[in-house]
Amino acid sequence: MQFDQIFSSRNARMKASEIRELLKLLDQPDIISFAGGIPDSALFPTDEFAEAFKNALTPERQAMALQYSVSEGYMPLREWIVGEMAKIGIVCDPVNVLITSGSQQALDYLGKLFLTPGDTALVGWPTYLGALAAFNAYEPRYDRLSLKGKRTAESYAAGAAEAGSAVKFAYLSPDFANPTGETLDRTCRLQLLELAEVLGCAIIEDAAYQSLRYDGEAVPPVLALELEQKGSLEDCRTVYCGTFSKTLAPGVRIGWAVAAKPVISQMVLLKQAADLHTSTVNQMAVHAVAEACFDAHVEQLHAVYQRRRDVMLAALEEHMPEGVDWTRPEGGMFVWMTMPDGADGARLLARSLETEKVAFVPGQAFFADDSGQNTMRLSFSNSNHAAIKEGIARLGRLLRSV
Ligand code: PMP
């Protein structure tokens, strides 16, 4: 059976990347991996989760925990999120909150909600590759979202018009972005709001790493700044996507979206059609764990990840040859490295795995136009200090030898 002949056209945009295939080789224990952008499982609040699941499954609560439930999400968790959002300037109501299976699902729904094939999505060059994967299924045209440059709203609009397209949203991760680790300052956030206003498009604010700030001063979320300008969430064009994956644990798959009611109502319909609702027992457990220890737990993560970041930055300083540059993130999990023009991250990875046993993600995967060959993403969240020092020393040796 030639299944590919009957697959829908959208599948043509959804290919397994060569890089992902390479990264499958990373399970070997002798490899030092800076590739996976994942939290350290040793830091999960496991005892709290064990207690929370046990409590969710008592005779009084098991019917709620294990039965079908509402698509919007478990109300106590939505209320807890409303409280957290208020702390960062996003005053909302539970009707503005949809619980999703990780923020990845919110990205998928937002692609489905906004994109007709050929519509324009503005994304960073580079941007989170999982967002590109989610949006690709809806066959968009991408244009480069460039807030530090001189691109005007008119240039985005003209580019879209020329392609017979309309700009539907700008997607970005303003704090400690995946993959660059960079944070957008307040001026750029305001500029983004102005741009979206002129273009009449939505903003998708992916806040996956927002809680993981180790130093420097917090910048208000884009949605908080917009709310400050407009006074009511119902007038805001920004959709905020949060997740417990980086703070509590990714395996429970609990994220959320906050937006004006028409957006949330439509996302609820998409959720009903896709998976009815997010796992209730997991939502109940996450709610209980968050109530029990969220702030203290996040504080503990800060201490560990901050030191790992510092060790990585110091090692890069010590071992990288001339001509190599990297970001100095104030939070999150990633350092983004730029090598001289002509360097090829994918080829370097193959060589690195063979000769130095160090893994990273070649940067090209994060570019909608396949550029960025001379870049790579290094994650510091899941390696101990000795491994970070040794891995960066080996990487420096490799880069000096090419
Ligand atoms: N956004 C960004 C920027 C991410 O890095 C990730 C996870 N790698 C996600 C969203 C998705 O995370 P989750 O679905 O686990 O919430």
TrEMBL record:
Keywords: Aminotransferase, Pyridoxal phosphate, Transferase
Name of one Pfam family that matches: Aminotran_1_2
Domain annotation Aminotransferase class I/classII large: ranges: 61-395
GO biological process: alpha-amino acid metabolic process
GO molecular function, one term: pyridoxal phosphate binding
The keyword Transmembrane appears for this protein: no
Cofactor(s) required for function per UniProt: pyridoxal 5'-phosphate
Protein name listed in UniProt: GntR family transcriptional regulator
